[in-house]
Amino acid sequence: MTSLAYRCAMTLSALAFGLGLLGAASADTLDDVKARGKLVVAIDPTFAPYEYTDASGTIVGYTTEIMQRVAASLGVALEYQKMAFSGIIPALIAGSVDAEGSSLNVTAERAAKVLFTVPFGKSVNAVLVRADETRVTATPLTVEALSGLTAAVKATTAPEQLLKQFNGQLKARQLPPIKIISVDSVDQTLAALMTRRADFVFDDLTVLGGLTKQLPGKVKQVGELGDSQWISWATRKGDARLNKVISDEIIALEQSGELKTLQQRYLGVSFDLPTADFIPRQ
């Protein structure tokens, strides 16, 4: 081979190698998922009604319905890898799975490590009253609207601590405090409400949704109080294309109304979800 021919061959080889690197650099997990025909998702199915196992051991719940639709939109099979919740983000970052499918509260700390999809859930405390209750009418609901009323709440929980904070606010305004009945279980809070020992139950929105499903027409939610957190999934930072596919499916389900149907079926409540500016600042 002449020197010129050798140089041309080496140039073409280097160009091909460079294009190969460029292709690899632009590729992400989405390409692997499509080539493999399978989406591998980490999950800790112990968070009913979002994700849990039924009597047969099948992973079911609100989030699994959404993830199944993501896999269907990609034309691939869905495979769950069960693991402890504490190991999910490390497994994701290490590349052991394609995405994670356990419900994550969206926090700035987590956002520094992973890329969140758009939210599909919401965590916020709310107020449940009997259907005939007329004293709590403020819109939006305020702490002052609960002044002098009796709350049933599960003991040693964040909602109980929040009620105590509310009483500090009411005291500062020289208003009667909320009387707090602390019990051992969610069912006991509902019993206190229905036997009129308590005027309202204070707990997470989805917990109250479950109670509403137990007694349809007999209780009602009247508003939210306190800070809220969005609930989402995550992919690796470099997997923007896979993340977008998942986010686009969530958005499509919300726009069609199907997401609210799933929320009502599994959570007993429905809510609007943001598509931007949902990650809190540090």
Explained architecture:
- The protein is of the alpha/beta class.
- It folds into two domains: 29-122 and 229-267, D-Maltodextrin-Binding Protein, domain 2; 125-224, D-Maltodextrin-Binding Protein, domain 2, CATH 3.40.190.
- The chain is 41% helix and 23% strand.
- The chain has ten helices and 14 strands.
- Strands 1, 5, 6, 7, 8 and 14 form a six-stranded mixed sheet that branches.
- A hairpin with a 3-residue loop joins β2 and β3.
- α3 crosses α9 (240-256).
- It is elongated.
- The chain starts with a helix and ends in a 15-residue tail after the last helix.
- Residues 1-26 have low confidence and may be disordered.
Q: Could you list some keywords that capture this structure?
A:
single chain, about 280 residues, alpha/beta, D-Maltodextrin-Binding Protein, domain 2, 2 domains, six-stranded mixed beta sheet, five-stranded mixed beta sheet, elongated
